[in-house]
């Protein structure tokens, strides 16, 4: 239909800078000790590398929303919106404190003249629904929503209601992970997935639920399973993946991808907080090609 | 067909049809023309009922007309005054089409009329719906009387798309696509096909283009779009966007716009998904993600049936999906619907998932839709109706063409693209865009078709051995018209034969056929019956050796007929049912019971199929009905047999009566238990033989089918099918490879074949062979049990020298009618007990049954009995039962052999024999193709590969048939000295 084209065509990327409160978990009363482990400067450097790669190597137009120290997790911009075609669904993250992150994103979406769909308030049909973008895998043909600690079925329903052209399947995500932690798109018909047991289970479910065929690229390390694939304006295949220092065993797997431009992109600091490469950006395609 | 007598009206029809058929024969045939084979058809249609010649004639003719078979009318029918009903059919463009049909007309009559009205040739994707009292949509079964499907209320229908083609671009005609578009527009506007705003816009713009043509600011103004309904809630914004897009389509023809429309619509996730409300029974996988504290039992879900399988939705979310290959079996029971799932990679056992439907009818409806979708999209050719009996399954099957068949058929469409008016548009009165369109259509389509047609014809020519279903037939009709003249000899003789049968004055002489057919269904009887049938077939299948070319041609012809026969199977069986019903009322208990077996297949009055239930045994006292064995369909056959047996021995009616009923009850009580065992034994024991049997078991056929789609209530039966899948592989070793393709015409009655047991059987077989070997060394040296069996088969590989396969050593043949049968030679085997000596046989067998229950009594093995004795296993008991019953059957029914052919080809190490047999039994035609490949040689032959190759070839040669059974024998086993595996 209107919006159905192979996965990976993007023109814009929206990112949000790393605030100095990076590492503090939103709404966390300080019980989280992991905060000490992250290095803000390193995180910012890595963020810079990512955005640089997206802009200069891949060739996307980059829109950077300035960081907001009040919103320590706002850099995980993927969570707050799900974008497909010219529709952006502003999600309702699991944590109450994160919901104000959407404000700035919503503005950007409007500026890009996307149709912004709200998940709605706590009342109404979607009451109790939570959805985070990192639990949503869009393959170009359908959506998989990981029902995880942060995303529930109601949230998935709202997503299904928003993107009616597509099949929206729910899959279980095990072990407190997020769907995109265990898999991501590695090409128009390729899913990269880690070979942990949980990931395999999820993948099996996805295979059962889909009407389509996907190639599966299995990587030995879980953190390697999250990549960013973009078919740039130059029609080349770009894959941003974790570098060899972070995922030594998986690099060889990526080399199997024919004719790809591999862009190793470090993400060690964000990943300490459970995020990964794709968490840091929203990808948008403003050039619609109707069938 | 609104005339008074059905015969007249139909007589006209066929004429026209014949003409059209011939007329178009050279210009590539229309989809209907595939069915126009007047010359051949007679051979194909087997009718046993005498009083109905005329009707049959008409039906035969009629059956040419549409692939969605037609059923015969009940014999009583001609007498009655024909009532004409007015049907109002709502067409896809919203208009109503009123047409009158006979009250008793089958669904296809109306359907064909509507399609004619719509000028639609690719009609297999469509169907007619009727809303029942609950306002639920039901598909009108083309093979059943409309009046039975419409219980109450006005005869209002709707014409709809039944099977949404996954790739509409493969449709041949624009007009077909147009109707599909209309359906989809309705789906969209009604919200059944949800889509996003962007998609509404896009699809709407194509609709506008195809309906209104190019955007014309002067003529159209600014709100021309609001006249059209494009979305469930159409906003001004949507209309504006549609207009924007519309302006960009200048010059796009309606056909192209529709193509774009479809190309986009087909990608929608709910495209062609037929949703049914249900609740979960038991728990589905964890993906269900029940909300906390939610009771999974109460979860409301939707089941979506589509081309690829069964989808399970909860609200809008897809929570599971079962592709057709993953589903082994579909069944329903009361208001529950079950699917049995093939075990996954890491699972050991199949699982069954149950759903609760709102009511029984909903479950049935869902089940039928599943069966139809599975058949249409997944199978190459429709499945024969189940021949089983014991499982109490519904015999409902999809009777139309499958997608594969319909595609082939529509590739033959050669007419110039018809001009048609896009309903609301009046485009043809309008202007330029029109000029382009039709012309282009005219040019394009014929060109395309021409080439395709040519190709198809080539195939038909080269690949004569291929089984041909109707459409293929059409091609061949053309291609081989010259041949036809030559070959007419073949079909021709059969015609008189058939009429003979029909004409035969005493109804019941024919009816016994029926009872024979049905009896086998009782598990106990299967063995014998099979054997019997096999024998008669074997005998009849003896065909004079022919020159290679002639053979081939003949085979092709035979296969033609096979296909036709197959087409008619459903209708015939339905006719049979009707007959039964008719008789039920008027007949004595005796005559009624003769037909009883068909009770199991009786249709609901509402056009549904139901399990046979107690209510159908109305003649039984209430209290007795609750007694299980009474429900057994084989009770009456058993009873009858015992009765007659006792009668023949005692000559005392009261004695026979009193004894036989309890005995029959006992038998039937044991029956379910014995069933599987028996079947398997029968199989193993006669593995070789049974390879000729005519079952087409979906359960066996893992090549072609995913699994089985039956409604069944028998658990045991389910289990057996499962294992089938696996057992096959293991059987793949051996020296002699027999492959049989069979098309079961008979709505038969075999007990559920228990492939499961096959394993056991094989080992059993081995054992018995070994033992036999030992025994036979004492007996007839050199003639082992195995060899004997072989010898009884037309093809005897070991000795199967050059001229070999043609002579069955012990044809039990059969039937006075047969002599009239074609040019086939009937031989009464020297050793065989002629089947016509039924009475004697009954007595003999009966005696054996009684006195020597442990012996194996199969008629063909009577002569072998001496040798067999030592080998007899406990199982033989069961066989004895069968033997007994068979006899009854045998008496009852000779079948009429329509034709039989044997074709042999050899290479150095292999001998291939193909048998094609067509029989008419009790009004049902049955065609089997059996292929035996005997590989002689040393052990270094890769048997697995040979088998695989053989199967592959077989499938290629007969794409429309399915490999239903593969039996592998290793001959070394017979000989005692080579006793190892």
Description:
The complex is a heterodimer of chains A (291) and B (981). Chain A has 291 residues and is α/β, with parallel strands linked by helices. Chain A has a single domain, classed as L-arginine/glycine Amidinotransferase, Chain A. Chain A is 22% helix and 24% strand. Chain A contains seven helices and 15 strands. Chain A has helices at residues 40-58, 102-111, 153-162, 179-182, 197-209, 251-254, 268-272; strands spanning 12-16, 61-65, 81-84, 87-90, 115-118, 136-138, 142-147, 167-172, 183-187, 190-194, 215-219, 228-231, 237-241, 260-264, 281-284. Chain A has a three-stranded mixed β-sheet with strand order 2-1-15, with helices on both faces. In chain A, helix 1 (40-58) links the parallel strand 1 and strand 2. Chain A is globular, with a radius of gyration of 17 Å. By secondary structure, chain B is α+β, with helices and mostly antiparallel strands. Among the domains of chain B are: 82-162, Ubiquitin-like (UB roll), CATH 3.10.20; 164-271, Acyl-CoA Binding Protein, CATH 1.20.80; 273-384 and 397-411, Roll (PH-domain like). In chain B, the strands form three sheets. In chain B, strands 9-8-7-6-12-11-10 form a seven-stranded antiparallel β-sheet, sandwiched between helices. Chain B has a five-stranded mixed β-sheet with strand order 2-1-5-3-4. In chain B, helix 12 (403-410) packs parallel to helix 14 (470-479), helix 14 crosses helix 15 and helix 18 packs across helix 31 (876-892). The A-B interface holds A 1-4, 85-87, 115, 141-142, 145, 147, 152-154, 156-157, 160-172, 204-205, 208-211, 290-291 and B 194-199, 201-203, 245, 260, 263-265, 267-269, 285-287, 289, 291, 308, 314-321, 326, 344.
